[in-house]
Specification:
The structure is a homodimer of 240-residue chains. With 240 residues, chain A is α+β, with helices and mostly antiparallel strands. Chain A contains eight helices and nine strands. In chain A, strands 3-4-5-8-7-6 form a six-stranded antiparallel β-sheet. In chain A, helix 2 packs across helix 3. The longest helix of chain A is centred in the N-terminal third of the chain and has 14 residues. The radius of gyration of chain A is 21 Å and the shape is globular. Chain A starts with 6 loop residues before the first helix and ends with a strand. The relative contact order of chain A is 0.11. At the A-B interface, strand 1, strand 6, strand 7 and strand 9 of A face strand 1, strand 6, strand 7 and strand 9 of B. Strand 6 of chain A pairs antiparallel with strand 9 of chain B, so a sheet runs across the interface. The structure holds a DNA duplex (19 and 19 nucleotides).
Chain lengths: 240, 240
DNA sequence: GAGTGGTCTAGACCACCCC
DNA sequence: GGGTGGTCTAGACCACTCG
């Protein structure tokens, strides 16, 4: 079953493929918006939206008065752009690999004041309190500390923790994850984390603190992920 | 001189202020798009664009069939959203603080093969090779290693290095910075970096590797910034 | 079923780049 | 000055949510 797509998504997809597979090469000017309208049989508004998708993904730049140009990107990087939606967290990020999970801790507790504030709940509400070690090909990669309000996730079977919580929320509970606010820092592992992650000597961790939101605008997750510094690179394309 | 703004920017600004200063509170539904059209005297397309700005900034969520809602965000976080454009680099990030710069190294060299590839130049082209220590209130915060092709930045007076290179490029050379592709990692400092950054004991660094692009789509900078882990937090809002 | 935001159109005018 | 992308409009139809 192929999803029905909006026209602008289809046009964006075509252009993306052309760029990726060399139809339009690095530094080259794209056809004018007017020409793209004719080529794809759509209005100019639709073409503009399509091209804006590629701008956001980092493939092209638009210059008023001049045209639209493929960014001068290294071929290797072109392939990686737009690969990682950075949602679905760990499971999606490492899709295709041999993923393992070890549940370290699973309880229901009251949140700290700070977490209650960030999750927009009361300190005497309850949250799931979960710690998991995630592995790729049997090797530990990241420790995740997750808190989710029972208020918003009424049910969370223990078995789910061994797989993707996000997938469960979306597929089983029908909840739609809308956005995430993240903060990244470099930290040192605790003694326990060194052991869990199999770190000998000195290795820093990339810590990602995340508040994630459902489609209704309410936060449903506060989590801290601490990744082995040698295994995690976080990519961002930022447009002016 | 107030800049002339697009209507959708103005409307977005109004809504942003309302949210920040409590006119619309957390979790609340915004007026319908049709109502906003009347309130601001603009077309629906313009309202949609305005609201889309706020979605991208992380303030609100839109739900087809339901409405637009202010995200349930902690007040402290609401204030910080959309503060940091993350361009202009260090100088803009710490605007208002007492900033210092110590130039460690300034030369013209050939790039490595990798850097040549990323900057889309030839290995026998030349690049500025700059190392700087940046300080806030006299305290060292970050070491920056920067390479820029002479091809694209024909002139770079030594004096500029003591201030903001970006500001020089924009204001003096009239170059417009369009986007940046970044990779973030956690690393340990070298012995030299420990000394430069005044680190005693174990402290990790947040490394930001950046390729930055001008408006013409050509890369003009490859840089590696290594920030004291206790001073740098990188924020991202990511939308599905 | 009523009402929401999502997509799309055709056309207009404007700001900017470049020759 | 000719041509680019940027903004804006008015109107149409659609997909989805919710009572």
């Amino acid at each position: 079953m192929t999803e029905t797509q909006a026209k602008y998504q289809e046009v964006a997809g075509c252009l993306r493929n052309e760029i990726r597979h060399g139809g339009y090469t690095v530094g080259q000017q794209l056809p004018l918006e007017k020409e793209l309208c004719e080529m794809y049989g759509v209005s100019r508004t639709t073409v503009k939206r399509a091209v804006d998708v590629l701008v956001a993904e980092g493939f092209v730049v638009k210059r008023r008065g001049a045209g639209t140009f493929v960014k001068a990107l290294d071929r290797g990087i072109v392939q990686h752009l737009n690969q990682e939606k950075q949602f679905g967290g760990f499971t999606e990020y490492y899709a295709g690999y041999d993923i393992g999970t070890k549940v370290l801790h699973y309880a229901v507790v009251h949140p700290t004041e700070e977490v209650a504030r960030l999750l927009m709940i009361e300190p005497d509400d309850f949250v799931y309190d979960i710690s998991r070690l995630r592995l790729v090909s049997g090797k530990p990669i990241v420790v995740e500390y997750t808190q989710m309000p029972l208020k918003r996730i009424p049910e969370l079977p223990k078995d789910v923790l061994n797989h993707s919580i996000y997938r469960y929320l979306e597929n089983e509970l029908g909840l739609r994850i809308q956005s995430a606010h993240r903060r990244l820092r470099a930290v040192m592992p605790t003694g326990e984390e060194k052991e869990l992650l199999g770190i000998e000597g000195r290795m820093p961790l990339l810590e990602v603190t995340q508040t994630a939101f459902l489609a209704d605008g309410l936060p449903f997750e506060y989590s801290i992920s601490r990744h082995r510094g040698d295994k995690m690179v976080y990519r961002v394309v930022s447009i002016r």
